[in-house]
């Protein structure tokens, strides 16, 4: 419970930093009903992530999380790189596998490359992913319920989270908005983050699909720590420091090469 409270409090503090540009220890102590020592530890945590810098009596925002893009705009960005990542991810799927494909533009490319697969069951919260797989004869599709978030064409909320309870999956293929070595995997929306957290809990292996532009970025809501991830599939744009940092954490890094290279 203490860990959950800390995570929730820090997410709220980060949101306040983003909205206000700075926070004060005294005001946060009053708001959350915790000690000044605890709040200072929270602010030191954000400073260590490079998100904030400590000031006298508080902290100010240093690094602003990236703005969320509409799913249709995302689909047009870095498409050849995303397609090579999706192709490489599809090569990890074996007959008989039960997998989750998270909503997103990069995970959508994985769905496109599953059309030749057989005896695969896919749970997804992405309407576009379900539609893509509707014509894949060897793929059984389970669509989570929940409320539609139109910006991302994803289903989310309590119903979507509860739909996972009856299942255990071999692999989760997860898309992210940010990946930071210290802060972990993040996304823009709180409901999507909660659903992604449940997905992580119900999968034996977590594979993150992301192009290198997401490295070093931190969105508002954390999905998971990198210690919970087994594999990351990305492109050759990953910098050496990030690659080495991931490998030190025990995360397998797979570099997907565009076709023809």
Automatic annotation (TrEMBL):
InterPro entries: AgaR-like, Carb_Metab_HTH_regulators, DeoR-like_C, DeoR_HTH, NagB/RpiA_transferase-like, Tscrpt_reg_HTH_DeoR_CS, WH-like_DNA-bd_sf, WH_DNA-bd_sf. Coiled coil: none annotated. Residues 6-61 form the HTH deoR-type domain. PROSITE patterns: HTH_DEOR_1 (PS00894), HTH_DEOR_2 (PS51000). Keywords: DNA-binding, Transcription, Transcription regulation. SMART domains: DeoRC, HTH_DEOR. It comes from the Bacteria. The keyword Transcription regulation applies. PANTHER family: AGA OPERON TRANSCRIPTIONAL REPRESSOR-RELATED, HTH-TYPE TRANSCRIPTIONAL REGULATOR SRLR-RELATED. NCBIfam families: AgaR, PRK09802.1. This is DeoR family transcriptional regulator. It comes from Pseudoxanthomonas winnipegensis.
């Amino acid at each position: 419970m203490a860990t959950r409270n800390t995570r929730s409090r820090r997410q709220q503090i980060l949101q306040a930093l983003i909205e206000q540009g700075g926070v004060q220890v005294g005001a946060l102590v009053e708001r959350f009903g915790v000690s000044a020592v605890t709040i200072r530890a929270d602010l030191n945590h954000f400073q260590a992530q490079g998100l904030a810098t400590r000031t006298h009596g508080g902290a100010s925002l240093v690094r602003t999380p990236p703005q969320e893009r509409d799913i249709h705009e995302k689909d047009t960005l870095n498409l050849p790189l995303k397609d090579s990542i999706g192709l490489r991810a599809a090569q990890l799927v074996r007959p008989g596998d039960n997998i989750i494909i998270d909503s997103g533009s990069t995970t959508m490319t994985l769905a496109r490359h599953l059309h030749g697969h057989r005896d695969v069951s896919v749970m997804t919260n992405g309407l576009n992913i379900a539609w893509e797989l509707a014509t894949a004869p060897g793929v059984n599709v389970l669509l989570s319920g929940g409320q539609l978030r139109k910006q991302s064409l994803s289903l989310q909320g309590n119903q979507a989270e509860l739909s996972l309870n009856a299942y255990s999956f071999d692999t989760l293929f997860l898309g992210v908005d940010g990946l930071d070595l210290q802060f972990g995997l993040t996304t823009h929306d709180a409901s999507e983050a909660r659903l992604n957290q449940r997905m992580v809990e119900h999968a034996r292996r977590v594979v993150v699909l992301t192009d290198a532009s997401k490295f070093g970025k931190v969105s508002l809501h954390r999905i998971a720590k990198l210690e919970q991830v087994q594999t990351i599939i990305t492109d050759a744009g990953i910098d050496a420091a990030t690659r080495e940092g991931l490998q030190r954490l025990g995360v397998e890094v797979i570099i997907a090469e565009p076709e023809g290279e």
